Amino acid sequence: MSYTVFVDAEDGPVATVAPSVLDALMLARGLKTDDSIGVTIAGEDGWILTLEELEELAKS
Hints:
By secondary structure, the protein is of the alpha+beta class. Helices cover about 35% and strands about 35% of the residues. A hairpin with a 2-residue loop joins strand 1 and strand 2 (about 10-20). The two termini are about 15 Å apart.
């Protein structure tokens, strides 16, 4: 399943599609360099996940 990672950038939100949960997790962790930057992950099934929820999903 693919995941779309949304980041609240200075110039507006940016979305990147990752082909798997592990790719999405690596991307989201790399983009979340500052606590003030918001990261949201959407699954292709419509579920909206936080970074913490994505980490739990990757563990299972």
